[in-house]
C-alpha cells in the first residue's frame, strides 16, 4: 500500500502498433516508469505528462529565462571540470549571480543534493526550467561519471537552440511588426487626417477626383465602424490565444499549414528539422537509447505536425526498421537527412552524421532568414510608400487641380 500511495497519474498521446492515434493514462512512480508501461502497451509516444492540478510556474521561476539556464549550465560544467565538487560549484554559482531568482534556484538545488538526492532528481523538481531531456542527460552523466561533459553538452545544445529560435523569431516578427505599424498609421490618417482635408474640400465647391472620393468614402466607413473593427481584432486575438492554449487539434492544424506559407513556411520547417537533428545527435552522444532519443527529439521540434512524423519513426524503429529506412518512407524528412542517417548507420557513426545534418540545417535557417530579410525590406518599404503615399496623393489631387485651373 505504501507504494500505491506514491503512484502518480501520467497522461500520454501517441500511436499504437497499427499507427492509430491513441490517448490514455497510466499509474507509475515516476516518468521513466510511466514510459516503460506505455511501451508495454505497444504505444509509441512523444507526449507523456504528469497529471497535476497545480500551476506549472512558480512566481520565481517565471522570471528565469532559458538563456540564464544555459549560462548556469556552462558555469557548473566549467567548475566541475576544474575539480570543484558539485556542492561547492552550487555555492560559487549562487555567489556569482546578482539575480535573486537564479540564486534561489541554485540554493534550492544545493539543498536537495546536500540532503542526499541526485542532481537529476533535484532538477526534476523544476520541470518548467529543466525539461525531461535535460534531466535524462544529467542522469546519464551522473551514472557514467561524466557530469561535466554532459553539462557542457547541454549548455551547447541550449545555446544553439536559443540562437536558432532567435533567428526564426526575427524572421517572423519583422514583417508582422512593420505591417502592424503600417495599419496603425493608415487608420490614423483615415480617422484624423482625411476628415481635415474633407472639410477644406467642402469649401472649394469643386468636383473631386474619383481617387479622392474613394479615399473619403473609405475614411467615412472607418470613422463609423473603427470601434467595431478594433473590437473584432481584440476578440480575434483573444480567441486565437485561447484556441492555441486549449485545443491541441487547432495547434496541430496551425503547425501543419504554417509550413505551407510562402518563404516563412520553409524557415519554420528548416528550424524544426534542425531542432530535431540537434536533439537527436545530442542524445545519441550521451548514450541515450534510440527510442528514448527519438521521443525526446519529437518534443523538441516545436511543431506538432513534424512531431507526429517523428512518432511514426519511433514506432517503426520499435518494430525493427532501420532509422534511415523509416525516414525514407516519410516524404516530410529531407533527402539529405535521410542519406546522412543511412551513412551513419552503415558506418556505425550515426551521432556524427546527425550532428552534421543539424549544422547543415541550422546554417540553412540562417541563410534563409538573411535572404528573406534582404528580399522583404524593399517590398515592405514599397508597400508603405504605396499605402501612405497613395493617401497623401488622394488628398492633394484636388489642390493640384485647383492650382492648375487658376
Please outline the helices and strands.
Elements: H1 2-5, E1 8-15, E2 21-28, H2 31-40, E3 44-50, H3 66-81, H4 86-96, H5 100-114, H6 119-124, H7 132-144, H8 147-204, H9 210-246, H10 248-258, H11 264-285, H12 290-300, H13 304-318, H14 323-328, H15 335-347, H16 350-405
Antiparallel strand pairs: 1-2, 1-3
Q: What are its keywords?
A:
single chain; 406 residues; mainly alpha; Receptor-associated Protein; 3 domains; 3-stranded antiparallel sheet; 3 strands; 75% helix; elongated; disordered N terminus
What would your notes on this structure say?
The chain is mainly alpha-helical and 406 residues long. The chain folds into 3 domains: 2-50; 61-160, Receptor-associated Protein; 163-406, Type II secretion system (T2SS), domain F (Receptor-associated Protein). 75% of the residues lie in helices and 6% in strands. The protein contains 16 helices and 3 strands. It starts with a helix and ends with a helix. Residues 1-5 and 53-59 have low confidence and may be disordered.
Strand order of the largest sheet: 2-1-3
Shape: elongated
For the secondary structure, the number of strands is 3
State the order of secondary-structure elements, H for helix, E for strand: HEEHEHHHHHHHHHHHHHH
